[in-house]
Structures are given as C-alpha cells and as structure tokens.
Amino acid sequence: MRNADEVSEATWQEGTELPSRTLPAITRTALALYAGGSGDHNPLHIDLDFARNVAKMDDVIGHGMLTMALIGRYLTELVPQRAVRSYSLRFIGMSKVGDRLECTGRVTKLLEKDGQRCAEVELEAKRQGGETLATGTAVVAIGAT
After folding, report:
1. CB hemisphere CA count around 124 (13 angstroms)
2. How far apart are the first and last CA of the chain?
3. Contact at 8 Å (CB) between 75 and 67?
4. pLDDT in tens, the chain (145 residues)
5. Are 82 and 54 a contacting pair, CB within 8 Å?
6. What is the CATH number of domain 10-26+65-141?
7. Where are the domains of the chain?
8. Among candidate residues 83, 59, 65, 48, the one with its CA nearest the CA of residue 134
C-alpha cells in the first residue's frame, strides 16, 4: 500500500482506480479486542457456542463496525485522516473468522466542498472469494495538509 504522502495529484482524476489492498485475516483475537474496545460484546461476535447453538450459524461473525474501521484504515492509508470530509458504508455481507478483506477504491467525481478541491471515492470490500461485504463512499480533500 502506498503511504498517504505518495498518492500524487495525478491520482485524483474521475475514473481513476486507487491502489487496492488485501488486509490481514480477521482473527478471533481481533474480534475479542474489537469487542473490548467498542463495548460491543454481542455473543454473535465472540461466543462460538452461542453462534452455533442459539443462532444456528457455523461460526461467529465479524462486527459490522470492524469492517467499517478496516475500510476506513484503507482509506486513511491513501489520504491523511485530516483529508476525510465524509465516509459512509453499506453492509452487504457478514465477515467471518479467516476472511481477508480486499479493499478497493475508485474516484467517481471531483467537486469543491467548503472551498476545497475534493474527490468523491467509491469504496468496496470483498472477501477472498470475491463476495462483496460492504460498499461505500467517501469525500476527501485533495492536497489537505
């Protein structure tokens, strides 16, 4: 992944595909740590017995907001966090233990917001088999310092 400082001004053209990134696999440890940090201790995310016996699922599922955080990390590896003007996500599928999210982005529109040159970016996260887990958009200021 490129460092945010390496994404050049030329990147910000409508239709430009941003560098993709495959994130490390989601682990049970990551789910437990996220549950502790977020306060979301829903047993669907951390209790295998509950997931199997009560919810009738094969395994626990990842927190939706963990998926959002991971895609947000992808975004802030492309641009500095201070450049993000808005960020929204729509959840389509559930992440599972062992999933490696592939995050991608594409510049869809250039615009001006609050006197700054900005880019609207379409975001997507897929699991390793190609199934889309989340899509979203972000508006980022270009050249924010």
Report:
1. 16
2. 20
3. no
4. 444 444 566 779 999 999 999 999 999 999 999 999 999 999 999 999 999 999 999 999 999 999 999 999 999 999 999 999 999 999 999 999 999 999 999 999 999 988 999 999 999 999 998 999 999 999 999 986 5
5. no
6. 3.10.129.10
7. 10-26+65-141
8. 65
In this prediction the pTM is 0.87
> DSSP strand E in 74-115: where?
84-91, 102-113
With residue 53 as reference, give the H or E element that holds it: helix 48-53
Given the structure tokens 């409508």, which residue do they identify?
14
Query: Taking the CB of residue 74, how many other CB atoms lie within 10 A of it?
Result: 23
- Give the Cα separation of 96 and 2 in Å (integer): 27
